[in-house]
Amino acid sequence: MWDRVVESMIFHPVRGVAITPEQLGIEGEEVFIETEDGVKIHGFYLPAPGAKRALLFLHGNAGNASHRLPNAADLVRLECNVLLLDYRGYGLSEGRATEAGVYADARAGLRHLIEQRSFPENRIIVFGRSLGGAVAVDLAQERELAGVILESTFSSIADVVSNGPGGAWLGALAGQRFESASKIGRVRAPLLHFHGDRDEVIRYELGRRLFEEAPEPKTFETIHGAGHNDLTQVGGRPYFDRIRVFLDEVAPERS
Question: Which entry of 29, 38, 119, 196 is 20 to 30 Å from 1 by CA?
Answer without folding.
Answer: 38
